Amino acid sequence: MSSRKKVLLKVIILGDSGVGKTSLMNQYVNKKFSTSYKATIGADFLTKEVTTLLATRPPPVLTAQAHLSFASLKQLWDTAGQERFQSLGVAFYRGADCCVLVYDVNTPKSFETLDSWRDEFLIQASPRDPESFPFVVLGNKVDVGDDRRAISTKRAMTYCQSRSGIPYFEVSAKDNTNVEQAFEVVARNALAMEEQEEYGGGFEDPIDISLDNERDGCAC
Amino acid sequence: MDRKKPPSAFRLSLQGLPYDQTVPDRPPIPITTRSAEPTAEQYKTYGIAQPTYMSARSGLDQEKGPRCDSGLAATSVRDSAITVHTEDHSAGSIRSALSVPQILLDNQAISVPPPHRSERAWLDVKQTNSIPSPSTTIDRPFQGLTLDISTGDLVDDFQPERIEFSKRGSMLFGGRKVTEPAKPVNGLLQPGFGSRRVKSNPSLRKRPAAKVLSTDEELLSHKVRSYYESGTDCANGWDQDSFLGQQMSRQWQDTCASLEGTSVKTSISDVRSDPSTADQTPESRRERTIEKEELELAGGLEYWRDIQNGDVDRYGFIMPRSSTVDAVNSGAMKRSRSSREPPALQRVSTSLQLAADAPRRKLAMRRSPSNANSVQSAIPGQMSIRQPKIRITRPRSSQSSYQGSLSGGSSRLRQATNRLPHNRDRRFMDEAGDMLTLPYGLGDIAENGESEAREVHVRRKEVERDEKWRKMAKVVSKTPDGGGTRFEFDTHSPKLIERTWKGIPDRWRATAWHAFLSASAKKRKESLSDEELIAIFHEHQSDSSPDDVQIDIDVPRTISSHIMFRRRYRGGQRLLFRVLHAMSLHYPNTGYVQGMAALAATLLAYYDEENAFVMLVRLWDLRGLDRLYMSGFEGLMEALDDFEKKWLKGGEIAAKLTELGIPPTAYGTRWYLTLFNYSIPFPAQLRVWDVFMLLGDSDSGSAPNVSVQPSPFGTTLDVLHATSAALIDGTRNILLDSDFENAMKVLTSWVPIQDEDLFMRVAKAEWKMHRRKA
């Protein structure tokens, strides 16, 4: 581990109020779930060290690179869900390597606002290449049950496909369903992004990665 | 006006558009007014072919048969084309969503206020809107008319691949779960159904003109408020598209019907003219609709159903039971410790936790210079356990410009001179890190079983202080019926200020806070009296707020560990909702903003709903919170800028944070917006509030030279700045050794302050130092 170069990945988590951004982040980082996290004010910050990131499942695009076994420290920025806190977002969004969009599969509105979160992020973070910036969409609270479910898997997949193939996962922060897998893809795509930035975009189109991920993405 | 659109065009307008086309081709129509259900006459007027189901339905209305939907019953009486509403708006909004064709207008002048709002009431609305919100689009020219026809058969038309989305503000298929085939007609009551909310400029994200709600918002607001009125979301899952939809909507309508019976009708028109009914109406309505449970009338006894007396601290927070230490110790220890323990949900940075867990007497050993250099490399994220113990030789105030590393010798000299009386403040700041640990001796007591004696001592002390405060308080008025006594304090008295820094005895806290804010209010002519504000509070309860849904999301998660706030839609949650609802309407340009809930919940621990509202309004008007919460957070930015430039600047912490690239916006937002409710234990938060309530008045007499460095806030926020500085002092040793990640984690963490006396002494020292600088 000492020989590995440390890479910092900055991941922003966005989505409507109450969809479970804080819960997801804490489930992923601390392996804990609580039903009563307070509303996030401003932004919250957690880190997670991901060491075996590339060793387990190297995405094809990156295999050619020499530094496969990077340990990477993932910074996770949890944000406030209420719209008007977005004016504070600029400071947090900049330099992000991946953006996680979360919605609640039982709340239609939270799905419908995904686009506005995505647009807002692209405006404020102004990444060099907005078209290829990696997003991951997470449909949270799948544990609640089918009778209350409002957004079907198909609909969400259709949406993600239409946005140049954003990887999509259905997760439950409560049951820890798919959380690890989802964030692994987040980390991988973020790393790809970071690499791309570092080498001035000499990489292949990251859409390849996304498509690849989509296959192992949603098996639900 | 584009009234002559043939119906087929409407159908076309419902087709999905590819995402790319939505922006250039269809500029968002700026505003959605309260949409009204067009009557048959309106259809004629507009030359629109009336949908067939509509005439069928009005026929149904005339039958006047037994119907579950009371809201529809009156539709047939309407006879004029424009002033169609003869009922109160609650029924109106339900009906319009149920029934369907919706006209969205972007020109406010076209929207006709429902006549049930008396002329005066409408004027009121207009007056309160006198400050135009920046995104208000009232004066934009009319750009189009969208009819949104929702019929049963539409459901069949939807194909998943035809669903398209555009940016927020031009949603084409908002809110509907149209893909679900088995949707009952009553599913129309779903949230999000009804009019599409259209905004003029999605990127601005400002509020639409206050109190002009879309049907959607109106409907949702009614739904949410009915939950809190009845104390339950009786139609559990009402908002879900479940197969129970039909039944549930009937339940909902029943609730509405019973609401409608008398109270709502009177409340809309009469309440405004007669304040006395305003006080009674909500009460009587509640009596009617809430299903009382056993014990519910016994003053909150039901809160205690599964809780024992000893499990709750003096402030009402339920203590975590797991700790074996607590079980062994007697009540005093429990009480002194419990509220200091971070609530289970608070994220505490590892470094802070380690510092807090280290007993203070061991910190004394840090003085050995031999230790000072022993720990060189801090692995980020894995702070050595020893670090907090060793690094105390650092300086000092967050404002101190003292630089450079200290040798053991000079720090010992500094420590020695700190003991001189005139260096007392410096000593507090030097030892600020100790605020994270229990005060001297308290750890010993826990082990030696001296807690009984300690408890007696603490109690005696508190009685003494109660007495001192009683002597300072001046009785202003007594209500004859035992309604309570009002007190006043001489807010300029140095003795009072001194004692407030030491903490207001809890028994006096509510009285003193109220008196402090009232004293500020009296100085300003425009301030409303308690009675006026309380009347406003009750008036707001019958209006809809666009923020009700957001408030409803936040209410249950605001203060869930407090005994009063555990029951969904009841008790404290209901009060919290009502207070926030009123706040969102009282400050329409700000509306409800997350963070307000934490403030309201703290106040509800000391006041009833009416006075909690009064206190909040005064905090807003007299303590600068209106500015802090201002839309776009410009005020907050100014405050954080002040903190950085006038409090931190020049200190080594400022240098460190600049080096790491951490601006105050990254950590200060929650400190200021929640007045530290999110970041420090409740007892410490109360101590900060004690001083803020007293000294937060911008023309406070204790301010020697206010006008030296003009800031939009004046000296109002000085107490908050001093508290922030104290928090940074308390964590400085950790911060100075941190990399970006760890510093961020510490700064956004819950700070487990155990010695709030020391914490406040540091804050006071910072405050005094700033005054001297200014």
TrEMBL record, chain A:
<dbReference type="GO" id="GO:0005770">
    <property type="term" value="C:late endosome"/>
</dbReference>
<dbReference type="InterPro" id="IPR005225">
    <property type="entry name" value="Small_GTP-bd"/>
</dbReference>
<keyword id="KW-0547">Nucleotide-binding</keyword>
<comment type="similarity">
    <text>Belongs to the small GTPase superfamily. Rab family.</text>
</comment>
<dbReference type="GO" id="GO:0032889">
    <property type="term" value="P:regulation of vacuole fusion, non-autophagic"/>
</dbReference>
<keyword id="KW-0636">Prenylation</keyword>
<dbReference type="InterPro" id="IPR027417">
    <property type="entry name" value="P-loop_NTPase"/>
</dbReference>
<protein>
    <submittedName>
        <fullName>Ras-related protein Rab7</fullName>
    </submittedName>
</protein>
<dbReference type="GO" id="GO:0003924">
    <property type="term" value="F:GTPase activity"/>
</dbReference>
<dbReference type="Pfam" id="PF00071">
    <property type="entry name" value="Ras"/>
</dbReference>
<dbReference type="GO" id="GO:0005525">
    <property type="term" value="F:GTP binding"/>
</dbReference>
<dbReference type="InterPro" id="IPR001806">
    <property type="entry name" value="Small_GTPase"/>
</dbReference>
<keyword id="KW-0449">Lipoprotein</keyword>
<dbReference type="GO" id="GO:0000329">
    <property type="term" value="C:fungal-type vacuole membrane"/>
</dbReference>
<keyword id="KW-0488">Methylation</keyword>
<keyword id="KW-0342">GTP-binding</keyword>
TrEMBL record, chain B:
<dbReference type="InterPro" id="IPR035969">
    <property type="entry name" value="Rab-GAP_TBC_sf"/>
</dbReference>
<feature type="compositionally biased region" description="Low complexity">
    <location>
        <begin position="396"/>
        <end position="415"/>
    </location>
</feature>
<feature type="compositionally biased region" description="Polar residues">
    <location>
        <begin position="264"/>
        <end position="281"/>
    </location>
</feature>
<dbReference type="Pfam" id="PF00566">
    <property type="entry name" value="RabGAP-TBC"/>
</dbReference>
<dbReference type="GO" id="GO:0005096">
    <property type="term" value="F:GTPase activator activity"/>
</dbReference>
<feature type="region of interest" description="Disordered">
    <location>
        <begin position="264"/>
        <end position="289"/>
    </location>
</feature>
<feature type="compositionally biased region" description="Basic residues">
    <location>
        <begin position="196"/>
        <end position="207"/>
    </location>
</feature>
<protein>
    <recommendedName>
        <fullName>Rab-GAP TBC domain-containing protein</fullName>
    </recommendedName>
</protein>
<dbReference type="InterPro" id="IPR000195">
    <property type="entry name" value="Rab-GAP-TBC_dom"/>
</dbReference>
<feature type="region of interest" description="Disordered">
    <location>
        <begin position="18"/>
        <end position="41"/>
    </location>
</feature>
<feature type="domain" description="Rab-GAP TBC">
    <location>
        <begin position="503"/>
        <end position="696"/>
    </location>
</feature>
<feature type="region of interest" description="Disordered">
    <location>
        <begin position="327"/>
        <end position="425"/>
    </location>
</feature>
<feature type="compositionally biased region" description="Polar residues">
    <location>
        <begin position="368"/>
        <end position="379"/>
    </location>
</feature>
<feature type="region of interest" description="Disordered">
    <location>
        <begin position="183"/>
        <end position="207"/>
    </location>
</feature>
<dbReference type="InterPro" id="IPR050302">
    <property type="entry name" value="Rab_GAP_TBC_domain"/>
</dbReference>
<dbReference type="GO" id="GO:0031267">
    <property type="term" value="F:small GTPase binding"/>
</dbReference>
